[in-house]
Each structure stands twice: as structure tokens, then as C-alpha cells.
Design a protein that fits this description.
Strand order of the largest sheet: 1-4-5-12
Radius of gyration: 22 Å
Oligomer: single chain
CATH architecture of the largest domain: 3-Layer(aba) Sandwich
Bound molecules: uracil
CATH topology of the largest domain: Pyrimidine Nucleoside Phosphorylase, Chain A, domain 2
Distance between the termini: 33 Å
Shape: globular
Number of strands: 12
Number of helices: 17
Strand content: 5-15%
Length: 445
């Protein structure tokens, strides 16, 4: 069918065939289909949805639109992907831990989107770290360190790159079949043997309700199974930042503290262990949850995981002594200012999206496409839900780009956002579950 006929069919709610979707994707890559037609198809899919078969066909066509990596390694090739959150540094810690357990982790990550932080922006706070290495350098880092976290290269799922850029500016990001095809096309092109998805739900997630998160989890595991990629999806809580900090260099520093054992936040640790355990089981490296968790704990305690992180940083151009001296290398904000509670109570909830936007306001995220971010700024010491605070006690600490009183205009805006984001109650409330649900692909045959 002609592109306009494909758009018309989807607009009118008719299912698209595999050949139509393949042809459309091929046209996106060879330039014969332009952004206007891509935007129109995206909006038609946003409103009409897709059947499982259509979503699978779109995913495969996008995966095959560029290079499909293959690996010849002596362990399973595994990866983890998050739907996006605040204080979510799981990828930075989990990749090296899983590598230390015998897997290889070629992790293709993204930049911050909206209020959420991006793993690539975090890694770029390490001086010299190359997030866009050449293919040979990437393969070498995966082989030697067991893990390499990089950005989407030009040749990997180029149709997703184009589709995503158009969706970002045409209000069609929040579509379950489009998110499924976008994430899985990159993962299938990366040649994985197993994938675990961390699907966030709550005030700081794109899928705010558990119902939406479940729909996305089910869509991802079923399309992945059809494509032969064993996949598990956990739905985890993003009703407060996962780590007690948010901001690029601040999260990298927290990762080093986590990996070395200087400090391990219990919520962060539990999510890392739960996701890591699913991954080790999918990769055939552990038989059950208990064994998998012991392996991950062992990789932390023996220092093997932090050693993998250190090696990855060095292989990709960062300082060789980074984990020994993170403070010598990471940028530091010009000033820090505590945000003090204005009354007594228990922290009952955070509006996590507002906290994420406070980091953006400080300069840690983008307000325009391609804008540079300030790696040093952000929030630390974010009070956990359930903490008792008195008026005048610290709710969070701002790390600001300006040395002016209160961190200048952006510091004052961030302070107001933190105060607006917190809800204090006179009585402590029972914390909700950290891990809501687990979904697993059932492989055909
Ligand atoms: N992450 C992706 O890679 N694609 C989406 O569509 C949403 C989140």
C-alpha cells in the first residue's frame, strides 16, 4: 500500500499487515517517507492502538532497519531497561553486578526525558567517558569489562531513532504499542539472550497507574516472547525517588557508594536485587531467586562488581582511578542549600514528578532539544516516605549552579518545588509495596 493508504487504514481502525509495516519502516529509513507521514501514522496508532500481531510486526521491522549485533562470548548477553524515573540509578549499578556474575551486558541507554533522568547524561558527568564509542570500541569494552553502557548508535534501529524524534514533538510518546516497539526494536538489534524491564508506576512514572504499567508490561513480554527474546517485567514503585538523591553526578557518586558498600539505600538495593535475580535466571546463570540474590550479593561483597564498573569507565575513556577517587573527578555544584520543613509531621508522599522537574529547573535536565545539562546540580538527602520531621528539619538539600544566596533564581524555584512536592501528615502511613507485580514471557513451543 502507498504510505497515505497505510495511514488511512490505521486512522479508520483497520489492522495493518506485516508487509505494509515493513514497507513503511523501509521508507522511513531510505527517506522516501517523510516526518509528516511518520507523525500522521504515529497519531493514528496513538488513537487506534495496535493488535499484538501488528505491534510485533512493527517491532521486528524497526529492529531490522539497521545493524543486528551478534556476539560470540562465553556467557549470556543480558540487559535491563527502565521505563524512566527519578533517582533511578539501577542501570549503573546492576550492569556491573550482572557482569560480575558471568553475563555480558551491552546496554544501550538514553538521555533524560521530561522529568526523568537519563543514564547517558549521568555517565557523561565522568570526565572522558565516551557514550558514543565506535562499534569496535564498544565490542571490546563489553568483552573486557563484561559491561558497556553507551548511547544508541546511528546504525542501531535507525527507524526507532526517527520515529522517536517525531513522537517526542507530536505528543505521541505515551502509546503502549509505540513504546513497546521502540524499546524492543533496540533490544532485539542489540542481540540479547535475555531482558528485564523495570516498569515504573506512581507519581514519578510515565505510567502513573498500575493498570497502565501492567498493560505495558504485558505488551512487552508478549511481543518479546514472539520475537524469541526471553523477557521479564517488574512493575516497581516510583512514588518517591528510588535513591535518596537525583541529579547526574550526584547519582554517579551514589552508585560508587552503593557498589563499594560505603552506603546502600535499602529501597534501591531491593529493586536492584529483584531485577538482577530475574536476569540471572533468564540467562541460565542461576536456578532460583535465592541463588541469584546470593550471587549478586557476593559480587558486591567481593568487590567484583565495583571492579567491573571501574573497568568499564576506563575502557570507555574515563579515569582509571575513578572509583577510588570519585570526588576528584566529578563536578561539584557551587553552593548547597537545605530545604527545611515548614511544619511537623511524617512524610506521607512526594510528588516525584515535581521533584524531577526541580532537578530540571536547577539545570540538571533539558528544556530544549539538545541543550547541555549541568552535571553537578540536583538534590540529595531526600527524606524517605515515613520519616518524621519537625519544622526546621531538612527535607532535601539543593545543589545549585549559582553561588548566590539560596542558589539564585533557579535555587529558589527548586526550593518552592520541593516544598510543593512533599505531603506531611500528622500520623505515619504504611508504606506501599516497592515491587507491585512480576510478568514473564512465555516462550512459544
Ligand atoms: N523509551 C524508549 O526507548 N522508547 C519509548 O518510546 C519510551 C521510552
Amino acid at each position: 500500500m502507498l504510505p497515505q493508504e497505510i495511514i488511512r487504514a490505521k486512522r479508520d481502525g483497520l489492522p495493518l499487515g506485516e508487509d505494509d509495516l515493513r514497507g513503511f519502516v523501509a521508507g522511513m529509513v531510505d527517506g522516501s517517507i517523510g516526518e509528516a507521514q511518520v507523525a500522521a501514522l504515529g497519531m493514528a496508532i496513538y488513537f487506534q492502538g495496535m493488535t499484538g500481531a501488528e505491534c510485533a510486526a512493527l517491532t521486528m521491522a524497526m529492529a531490522r532497519s539497521g545493524t543486528m549485533l551478534d556476539w560470540d562470548l562465553d556467557g549470556p548477553v543480558l540487559d535491563k531497561h527502565s521505563s524512566g524515573g527519578v533517582g533511578d540509578l539501577v542501570s549503573l549499578a546492576l550492569g556491573p553486578m550482572v557482569a560480575a556474575c558471568g553475563a555480558y551486558v551491552p546496554m544501550i541507554s538514553g538521555r533524560g526525558l521530561g522529568h526523568t533522568g537519563g543514564t547517558l547524561d549521568k555517565l557523561e558527568s565522568i570526565p572522558g567517558y565516551r557514550t558514543m564509542p565506535g562499534r569496535d570500541e564498544f565490542r571490546r569494552a563489553v568483552r573486557l569489562a563484561g559491561v558497556a553502557i553507551i548511547g544508541q548508535t546511528d546504525d542501531l534501529a535507525p527507524a526507532d531513532r526517527m520515529f522517536y524524534a517525531v513522537r517526542d514533538v507530536t505528543a505521541t510518546v505515551e502509546s503502549i504499542p509505540l513504546i513497546t516497539a521502540s524499546i524492543l526494536s533496540k533490544k532485539l538489534a542489540a542481540g540479547l539472550d535475555g531482558l528485564v524491564m523495570d516498569i515504573k508506576t506512581g507519581s514519578g512514572a510515565f505510567m502513573a497507574t498500575c493498570h497502565q504499567a501492567r498493560e505495558l508490561a504485558e505488551s512487552i513480554v508478549s511481543v518479546a516472547a514472539g520475537a524469541g527474546l526471553p523477557t521479564a517485567a517488574l512493575i516497581t514503585c516510583m512514588d518517591e525517588p528510588l535513591a535518596p538523591c537525583a541529579g547526574n553526578a550526584l547519582e554517579v557518586r551514589e552508585t560508587v557508594r552503593y557498589l563499594t558498600g560505603a552506603e546502600r539505600d535499602p529501597r534501591l538495593h531491593e529493586v536492584i536485587l529483584a531485577l538482577g535475580a530475574r536476569l540471572l535466571i533468564l540467562g541460565g546463570l542461576a536456578h532460583d531467586e535465592g541463588a541469584a540474590r546470593s550471587m549478586l550479593e557476593g559480587a558486591l561483597e567481593s568487590g567484583a562488581a565495583v571492579e567491573r564498573f571501574s573497568r568499564m569507565v576506563a575502557e570507555l575513556g574515563g579515569p582509571r582511578n575513578f572509583v577510588e577517587h570519585p570526588d576528584r573527578h566529578l563536578p561539584v555544584a557551587r553552593s548547597t542549600w537545605p530545604v527545611l520543613a515548614e511544619g511537623d509531621g511524617y512524610v506521607a508522599a512526594w510528588d516525584t514528578r515535581v521533584l524531577g522537574m526541580a532537578v530540571v529547573a536547577l539545570g540538571g535536565g533539558r528544556t530544549r532539544v539538545g541543550q547541555a545539562v549541568d552535571h553537578a546540580v540536583g538534590l540529595t538527602s531526600i527524606a524517605r516516605v515515613g520519616t518524621a520531621v519537625r519544622a526546621g528539619e531538612v527535607l532535601a538539600v539543593l545543589h545549585c549552579a549559582s553561588a548566590e544566596e539560596g542558589g539564585g533564581a533557579s535555587g529558589r524555584a527548586a526550593r518552592s518545588a520541593v516544598l510543593k512536592a512533599v505531603r506531611l501528615e500528622p500520623e505515619p502511613s504504611a508504606p506501599g509495596p516497592l515491587i507491585h507485580e512480576s510478568h514473564e514471557s512465555v516462550m512459544p513451543g
